[in-house]
């Protein structure tokens, strides 16, 4: 992995510490994420993946260390966050479009600009369902798509996704994955994706961070130099298979075996 | 249609039994008038007597105390629910007074508010406010954490989170509280009309009819009070169904 110069980093974590009830989850953890990159975080259950992005998103206080966005703290930057459980993240009393407009209203944007962003997102994600529907009348995949649009509407400097597809069926996951990579790459959105699916992590990421058990450290940091866009054929390309083998190897040795 | 026929059948059966009891002279006719007599006496009191005015007074008092109760119970409940540590501190007091029969508070409120309209409204509002507050607080405390976090990430200020998320998350529970609250307010208002220097209201009319041995009217007023309570309850049930369209989905 090439070193990331401070100017290239959209997000820098230094000496992060966090413990729950005296048990350390992070004890001196550092990370730089390059602007425009999609970073996938892969690690065993309970190693602290959600904890990491929640601290980065300002939803959870840190015990020590610092998390900076190009020198600024999280309150000073726009971020997007997609929760695993879309049912509990969307506002069911607002229509889908109103959910997407919500963060834009909080930013104080003009109505015309809000509508422009909504339309551009709907076009980018090729939305064919009615955005004036209430979330509960949409399918799971459509609801998670609305969550993703809501998070991207603010044009975030960093987008966080915590296992966004784990509650969806395989077919839906595949089509959402394809749409997401197109949009993220077109918009050059810096993204941190937590995933339980190794194949998904490789397909979507520029870089994979393999984490160890607690106290959590980086077991391996793997660049994914596959061409974009990544399609069905990518899954059987030799490079893809080689990366997957390396990841599995690291996982069984450093992670599962420790 | 069936949904209406079955309860109507039940009501008809009740009236038939009543009539049978009258025909068989199971009780003194002074104590148990026939349904027809009851109906006639009540209708007469509505058209020529004070019953319509009484009904109106009871409705106004109930609605007024309910509104006062909402104005106090909803914001306070939201606030306490949002700060769970504070709620835990006052929970015992809320629970205690919620369990205290409101009628036991009449003397106290008479001292505080004097013999007049104020006392009736105040006691009823006090009882209903506690119920509404309790439900609003629990609604907020059971709010989905993810939604609160989502609002924060999207740049909502703490006050915004209260109005844009907590209030809505608690809304189903608040409406349940309002439904219980308005029923309780009606109970307290009717009792207050009986015993706290009143000259009108359904409670007053029942007591007067009883003391004058106008048993037909007395039964009629009881049914009017019952219908009022039933309609208030039904109104809130329908409101819940229409307004909380996302519940359970
Ligand atoms: N609020 C909390 N209080 C106490 N312990 C917590 C809390 N949040 C997380 N933990 C603990 O910290 C560790 C890391 O949790 P975290 O949810 O970040 O793991 P994760 O890597 O996201 O796991 P998963 O793969 O299951 O999503 C776990 O052992 C968890 O039990
Ligand atoms: Mg997690």
What can be said about this structure in brief?
The complex is a heterodimer of chains A (258) and B (249). Chain A is α/β, with parallel strands linked by helices and 258 residues long.
Q: What is the secondary structure topology, with strand pairs?
A:
The complex is a heterodimer of chains A (258) and B (249).
Chain A: E1 9-20, E2 23-34, E3 38-42, H1 49-56, E4 64-68, E5 79-82, H2 86-89, H3 96-106, H4 111-124, H5 140-153, E6 158-162, H6 170-187, E7 190-194, H7 198-204, E8 207-211, E9 218-223, H8 238-256
Parallel strand pairs in A: 3-7, 3-8, 5-6, 6-7
Antiparallel strand pairs in A: 1-2, 1-4, 8-9
Helix pairs in contact in A: 3-4, 3-5, 7-8
Chain B: H1 2-23, H2 35-47, H3 51-82, H4 84-99, H5 106-113, H6 117-141, H7 145-153, H8 158-195, H9 202-211, H10 215-243
The complex binds adenosine-5'-triphosphate and magnesium ion (MG).
Question: Which terms would index this structure?
Answer:
heterodimer, A: 258 residues, alpha/beta, Rossmann fold, 2 domains, 6-stranded mixed β-sheet, 3-stranded antiparallel β-sheet, 8 helices, 37% helix, B: 249 residues, mainly alpha, MetI-like fold, 81% helix, globular, binds adenosine-5'-triphosphate, binds magnesium ion
């Amino acid at each position: 992995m090439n070193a990331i110069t401070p100017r290239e980093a959209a997000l820098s974590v230094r000496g992060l510490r966090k413990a729950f009830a005296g048990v350390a989850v992070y004890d001196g953890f550092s990370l730089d994420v390059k602007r425009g990159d999609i970073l996938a975080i892969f690690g065993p259950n309970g190693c602290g993946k959600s904890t990491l992005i929640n601290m980065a998103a300002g939803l959870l206080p840190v015990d020590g260390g610092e998390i900076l966005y190009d020198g600024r703290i999280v309150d000073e930057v726009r971020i997007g966050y997609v929760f695993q459980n879309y049912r509990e993240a969307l506002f069911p009393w607002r229509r889908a479009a109103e959910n997407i407009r919500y963060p834009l209203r909080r930013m104080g944007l003009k109505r015309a600009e809000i509508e422009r962003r909504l339309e551009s997102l709907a076009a980018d994600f090729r939305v064919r369902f009615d955005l004036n529907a209430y979330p509960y009348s949409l399918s799971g995949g459509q609801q998670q798509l609305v969550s993703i649009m809501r998070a991207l509407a603010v044009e975030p400097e960093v987008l966080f996704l915590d296992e966004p597809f784990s509650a969806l069926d395989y077919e839906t996951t595949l089509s959402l994955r394809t749409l997401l990579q197109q949009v993220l790459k077109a918009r050059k959105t810096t993204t941190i994706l937590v995933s339980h699916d190794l194949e998904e992590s490789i397909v979507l990421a520029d870089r994979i961070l393999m984490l160890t058990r607690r106290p959590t450290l980086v077991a391996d940091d793997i660049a994914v130099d596959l061409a974009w866009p990544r399609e069905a054929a990518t899954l059987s390309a030799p490079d893809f298979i080689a990366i997957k083998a390396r990841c599995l190897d690291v996982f069984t040795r450093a992670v599962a075996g420790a | 249609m069936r949904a209406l026929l079955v309860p109507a059948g039940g009501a008809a059966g009740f009236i038939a039994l009543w009539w049978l009891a009258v025909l068989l002279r199971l009780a003194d006719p002074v104590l148990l008038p026939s349904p027809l007599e009851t109906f006639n006496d009540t209708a007469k009191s509505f058209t020529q007597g004070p019953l319509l005015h009484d009904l109106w007074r009871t409705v106004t008092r109930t609605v007024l105390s309910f509104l006062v109760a909402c104005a106090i119970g909803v914001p306070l409940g939201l606030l306490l629910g949002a700060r769970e540590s504070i709620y835990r501190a006052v929970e015992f007091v809320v629970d205690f007074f919620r369990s205290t029969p409101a009628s036991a508070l009449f003397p106290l409120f008479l001292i505080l508010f004097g013999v007049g309209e104020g006392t009736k409204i105040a006691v009823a509002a006090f009882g209903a406010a506690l119920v509404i507050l309790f439900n609003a607080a629990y609604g907020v405390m059971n709010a989905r954490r993810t939604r609160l976090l989502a609002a924060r990430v999207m740049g909502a200020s703490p006050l915004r989170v209260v109005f844009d998320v907590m209030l809505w998350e608690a809304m189903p529970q608040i409406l349940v509280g309002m439904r219980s609250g308005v029923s309780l307010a009606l109970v307290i208002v009717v009792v207050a009309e009986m015993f706290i220097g009143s000259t009108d209201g359904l409670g007053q009319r029942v007591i007067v009819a009883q003391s004058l041995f106008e048993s037909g009217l007395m039964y009629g007023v009881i049914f009017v009070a019952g219908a009022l309570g039933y309609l208030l309850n039904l109104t809130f049930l329908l409101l819940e169904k229409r307004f909380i369209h996302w519940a359970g989905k």
